[in-house]
Amino acid sequence: MTGQVFRNGAGGRIDRTVPLSFTFDGKNYQGFQGDTLASALLANGVRVVGRSFKYHRPRGILGAGFEEPNALVQLGDGARTEPNTQATRVELFDGLTATSQNRWPSLQFDISAINGLFHRLLPAGFYYKTFMAPANLWMTYEKIIRRAAGMGRAPTQMDPDIYARRFAHCNVLVIGGGPAGVSAALAAGQSGARVILAEDNPQLSVSETELADMDNVTVLTRTMAAAYYDHNTLILSERIADHKPAPAPFETRQRMWKVRAQQVVLATGALERPLVFPNNDRPGVMLASAAQCYAADFAVRAGNQAVVFTNNDSAYGAARDMKAAGIDIAAIIDTRPEISDSTRELATNTKVLTGHAIIDVASGRGGATRGVTLKAIHPDTGAPKGSPIDIACDVVAMSGGWNPTIHLFSQSKGKIKYDGARAAFVPGQSFQQERSIGAANGTFDHEACIIEGHNAGAAAARDVGFDAPDARTSPSGIPPAAQPLWSAPTGAKRFVDFQNDVTADDIGLAYREGYQSVEHLKRYTTLGMGTDQGRTSNVNGLAIMADHRRLDIPEVGTTTFRPPFSPITLGGIAGWHTGQNFEATRQSAMSAWHEAQGATFSNAGLWRRPEYYPRTGMTPAEAVHHEARHVREKVGVVDVSTLGKIDVQGRDALEFLSRVYINNLTKLPVGKCRYGVMLREDGFVFDDGTITRLAEMRFLVTTTTTHAGPVMTHLEYLAQVQWPELDVHLLSVSEDWAGIAIAGPNSRTLLSQLFQDVDFANEAFPFMGYRETNAGGVPVRLFRISFSGEHAYELNVPADYGLNFWTALLETGADLDVIPYGTEAMNILRIEKGHVTGAELNGRVTADDLGFAGMMSKLKPFVGQVLARRDALTAKGRRQLVGLVPADGETPIPAGAQILADPDAPPPEFTPAAILGEVTSNCYSPALGHPIGLGLVEDGSDRHGDTLYAHSPITSETVAITLTNPVFVDPAGGRLHG
Amino acid sequence: MLHIACPWCGLRAQSEFTYANDGTLIRPDLSNDSIDDHYNYVYARDPRRGIQDEMWRHSAGCGQFLKVRRDTLTHEIHATGAPQDDLDVPKDDRS
Ligand SMILES: [Zn+2]
Fold first, then answer.
1. Which of A132, A313, A382, A702 is deepest in the core (most CB within 10 A)?
2. Which of A232, A720, A722 is closest, CB to CB, to B27?
3. Does residue A326 share a domain with residue A348?
């Protein structure tokens, strides 16, 4: 019934009572609970799982975990499809669908494999050499190459899953749940320290009930430590539901942990290196540790007959486990001339050929391994000699030694060092509060790992003040197994980097062409640049380059390891910050009301502001014009809650404000407002708003909506850092007060009806006056200020009452024809009045450019005063604020247009010198009955009456415009003061 | 992510803070109207590869500015204090 012909009937950590069905490239297979996709594929005898990146050679499974460079698959389909997953790390579930990635058009018939026949055309540096010129052709080539290379497809639909984030603190964070890591977590846990232990696998390598019972220890499985940042901050990616067909409803798929640990213990293990020999990429050639893992953990035979090829002792244990699982070990080929007796004992009844090496791998059907050819090798040079020996096999289990997994250690800025005895880079001096232990530290003996783990866990806990168990002593001096690096000196393609198809010859070519430094080597050959970040290739590549350069490996150097250790999902990075939660939304107290009226909204910073209120029978533009016209004729109310409001108090509040505003404020009495302008230190205009003196030592200043935050920071910086001697205190009250502007000829009558205790007569409450009252105990602040140019007020009430006052104004004013208006009409009204806003306050204008020169006090120093005197800020030819009207009285002025003197000049985008200025604001003016605009034009104040041209590079329109005074409506200000 | 000791709130995550400015700047006196002096205050900076004083703000916390003596090479923070504090740990010897 089962096609799992390579699965043994007993053994392994799988659950045979739970069979699982899955598909790979559309074909149905069966596996068991506890399988990875890779182990299940091998159980079913699937040997070819992908095509190589450049030569499109068939590739099989090389590893059993993080190191896998070949078996990259696309998982699932639709919105949940995921590219570039390692089959060796995918937990099998019922209904899993996977497709091989690196194949086109199919795994069996791969048209690009023809590249292999022309491999001389595809040497290292191929991309650079071939596609240097013409540059535009690269775009075409790249698409073809990417498709042929099979990089996987990103999903095109919205991610349906939930991703969570968690911040955590602990005393000791242990990465890696192998013998060393578990031992460290236990020792730290026993001390009472708060411990987090993270392990990428679904379970720890040893079952540990004591750990599970400790309340102070959190064990996170299916959790990959992706990054190690400053000050012991680590990022962990926890896969909560990836081993299921789909998360349950409302279940989180993945959780990203940001952990701040006082002490970190890295027990990240080691990864086996391949050996470099001709045709070492045939399907069936795999790491000895992988073949061992499939045999022992999954009861899967990687093949029927194996040749073990090694340069170190560890493969002998692998051979033993493979044999135990029923794989016939044809021979162990050891490159070393001699091995120890104890090693030889591990291989009793197995043929061992020392001083030999594989010089070729023969392939059969589908490219899979069917035998190897060996020769004796010269003990010093490694050169093959004598007559060849052929051995039939379908598996080559190779071991080139072990690389401690030092990625996180390197990310932590620890110094790595080369250990000649282990022929590997190992952790050197720690930079942060960190300890590397076990295989990650080059300790490969099981017992020694446990002791090292215990001692590190206890020491870490002790360092942060816990009473930890005593250190244990290691069995004295277990020597590291000698692991000389070895690669075949010559022969057919000898792969170093399987994922990026980099061969030993490519490294030789890079050497000959002068790309000898590690960084050049990497970029020229793409060695180590795949998603596996060269886990299996880096050290072999360095060793080959070192050999060419006749240097020691540490002199050649090593590349930098960067986060993430292994790819993480974008969904996990985004967490909850998607869609509506992408950023915070700020709503005024009246937002719901605006929404209920069907208003459209626009964003101002994080605020949502109503643009206009739709009216039956009117287009949006007509509705906006109606609102603007109505304000000038009757009365309207607009939500201005978003304006920044800062409460300024203290004995030196006036002195402080005098220093930050250009205006002279000494004569500002209590109960009066003033329009104020602030410069930046560099002399340009920063922001504008009103200053109201609420009391002798208390002011309320307002800012534009978008500058509320920056202005507050600027003022706080000056108050706290530069002028600490001033007694002044600042408090942002933007959200404490709802703001409503009431504008139009009927505004006075409307407010008189609502606040009968306030005398609104001109003498009692003049323009720029301020009054306080209350309504039913609610404090009300009334400002007679105007942005529209009409007789107008602004009302502030505590935000909780904003909606009450808003509706009260509309109800009370029904007889006076009050209407609500939005930001669109407000914008028209202020353009008609020549008031500037963010469009004009663009950070490049001076007070003089905007016609504010008269406001600049000459009697006191203020921020920006000195640098505003610089030549470039006062020279002739600066762009100054002007009004704009179409010369024909009707053509709309294009938004954002450039202003030119000559309409027939070449397009201004190509002749910047011809540009005299720009249109900053434009609209149709209902009050005037024609389009108007504001602009900044060179020496504009002297050009009123001139005709220039507004050219839009976007719409290609050119409109003749006449420059005017920027105040179109009521230049004398009668409406304001009346 | 840095761990920064706010003098008022204690050890907090970097995400609560905003870098504000060079920590050694002294604004020219109000009576000083030298363009050069103001120019230097606004534009001239001496960023270090090593230990330097920076002004940060605990923007998502107490809102106070604080002086941070930080090594730009190693990201170590040697001391923090109020803006006017003289931090009592050795400074970069080049200063
Ligand atoms: Zn604070």
1. A702
2. A722
3. yes
**What CA–CA distance (Å, rounded) separates A24 from A36?**
13
Let me know whether A465 and A607 are in one domain: no
Residue A481: helix, strand or coil by DSSP? coil
Q: Do residue A394 and residue A407 come from a single domain?
A: no
Nearest to B1 among A229, A720, A722 (CB): A229
Q: Which of A167, A861, A867 sits opposite B42 (nearest CB)?
A: A867
What contacts A121, CB < 8 A, 6 or more positions away?
A115
pLDDT of residue A908 exceeding 80, the answer is no
B49 Cα to chain A: minimum distance (Å): 16
Best B35, B58, B70 residue to mutate vs chain A (most A CBs within 10 Å) = B35
CATH number at residue A327: 3.50.50.60
Domain B3-23+36-81 of CATH type 3.30.2270.10:
yes
Contact A231 B35 (CB under 8 A): no
Q: Are A29 and A40 in contact (CB under 8 A)?
A: yes
Entry pTM = 0.89
Per-residue pLDDT reduced to its tens digit, B50-87: 999 999 999 999 999 999 999 999 999 999 999 999 99
Burial call A316-342: b when 16+ CB within 10 Å, e when fewer:
bbbbbbbbebebebbbbbbbbeebeee
What is the least distance, in Å, from the CA of A435 to any CA of chain B?
18
**Token couple for A701:** 């200043």
Confirm if B93 and B50 have CB atoms less than 8 A apart. no
Question: Residue A670 domain-assigned?
Answer: yes
Q: How confident is the model over A606-646, as pLDDT tens digits?
A: 999 999 999 999 999 999 999 999 999 999 999 999 999 99
User: What dihedral do alpha carbons A518, A519, A521, A524 form, nearest 10°?
Assistant: 180
- pLDDT tens figures, A849-860: 999 999 999 999
Query: Distance between CA atoms of A814 and A21, rounded to whole angstroms?
Result: 71
**A91-109 pLDDT, tens digit each:** 999 999 999 886 555 555 5
As for how many domains chain A has, the answer is 7
Contact B42 A861 (CB under 8 A): no
Q: Helices A802-812 and A747-754 sit at what angle, rounded to 10 degrees?
A: 110
Is residue A390 domain-shared with residue A292, that is, in the same domain?
yes
Cross-chain residue pair A682–B1, CB shorter than 8 Å: no
**CATH number where A628 lies:** 3.30.1360.120
Residues A918 and A782 in one domain: no
Domain end point (choices A821, A841, A864)? A821
CA A264 to chain centre: 24
Domain ranges of chain B: 3-23+36-81
Probe site for chain B from A429, A430, A686, A720 (most B CB atoms < 10 A): A720
**Which residues crowd ion ligand 1, with CB under 5 Å?**
B 6, 8-9, 58, 61-62
Contact with chain B for residue A385, Cβ under 8 A: no
Domain finish residue from A680, A702, A733: A733
Half-sphere exposure of residue A978, counting CA atoms within 13 Å on the CB side?
Answer: 14
Q: Which of A524, A574, A535 lies closest to A558 in space, CA to CA?
A: A535
Q: Which of A262, A720, A721, A857 to mutate to test the interface with B (most CBs of B within 10 A)?
A: A721
Angstroms from B42 CA to nearest CA on chain A: 7
Distance from residue B19's CA to the centre of ligand 1 (Å):
13
Domain that residue A140 falls in: 1-159
> CB B41 to CB A681 under 8 A?
yes
Q: What are phi and psi of A917, to 5 degrees?
A: 170, -165
Q: Are A498 and A72 in contact (CB under 8 A)?
A: no
The predicted pLDDT at position B94 comes to 45
The ipTM value here is 0.96
* Contact A340/B at CB under 8 A: no
pLDDT reported for residue A118:
46
